Automatic annotation (TrEMBL):
Belongs to the CoaE family. The lineage of its organism: Bacteria, Pseudomonadati, Pseudomonadota, Gammaproteobacteria, Lysobacterales. It catalyses: 3'-dephospho-CoA + ATP = ADP + CoA + H(+). The gene is coaE. Pfam families: CoaE. Transmembrane segments: none annotated. This is Dephospho-CoA kinase.
Length: 221
């Protein structure tokens, strides 16, 4: 009977708006790493026929649905942006379901390690104590503001409002086992991801023999 392989390490990737999380996860995917994206899971959970969509309609009304029965994301976003209680109610409907699905998908994954892209990890009030490690994609505030302005075509004041709606940079960094400072060139990011990939493969190889956790690694692109 072949030996039982240890489960893959479960490593979360998180970061603020315009930090470059997607650029990082795409590079890991190119190296053959499974990436489970919380945003994709969230979208799948509100497809027609899903229980979460039924609960959203019951809470917010039929006007948050399009004619074809799909969620009208713009209408719902406008509601929760201006109403803190509505936002909390939406989070109560979605977050526990997203978290459960992420965990189930991670447990079903194969390979040395799996990445879970969780943009709002620092904002979550629900425990993610089943994660093995957290990688934070960090970016200096001024670079972040410039990226948001360029990407979204907004003013500096609007970009700052978007940043203010998220967890602070310090709160995210407090979760980190590893940090990518993504303020540089594409080639540098490629090299950083390649080094972290080897690092995670090494951690996975030694997972069956527990040892003191490595010190946080901070890498600059």
């Amino acid at each position: 009977m072949p030996p039982t392989l240890p489960p893959p390490l479960r490593i979360a990737v998180t970061g603020g708006i315009a930090s470059g999380k997607t650029a990082v996860t795409q590079r890991f995917e190119a190296l053959g790493v499974r990436v489970i994206d919380a945003d994709i899971v969230s979208r799948e959970l509100v497809e027609p026929g899903q229980a979460a969509l039924t609960d959203i309609e019951a809470r917010f009304g039929a006007h948050v649905l399009q004619a074809d029965g799909r969620l009208d994301r713009r209408t719902l976003r406008e509601i929760v942006f201006s109403d803190a209680q509505a936002r909390r109610d939406l989070e109560a409907i979605l977050h526990s379901r997203v978290r459960a699905r992420l965990r189930a998908d991670a447990e079903a994954a194969t390979g040395p390690y799996v990445l879970l892209a969780i943009p709002l990890l620092a904002e979550s009030t629900y425990p993610y104590d089943w994660l093995d490690r957290v990688l934070v994609v960090d970016v200096p505030r001024e670079v972040q503001i410039a990226r948001v302005m360029r990407r979204d075509g907004v003013t500096r004041a609007e970009a700052e409002l978007s940043l203010a709606a998220q967890a602070s940079r310090a709160a995210r960094l407090a979760l980190a086992d590893d940090v990518i400072i993504n303020d540089g060139a594409v080639d540098a990011l490629d090299a950083i991801v390649a080094r972290l990939h080897l690092h995670y493969l090494g951690l996975a190889a030694h997972a069956a023999a527990p040892a003191p956790a490595p010190a946080p690694r901070s890498l600059r692109s």
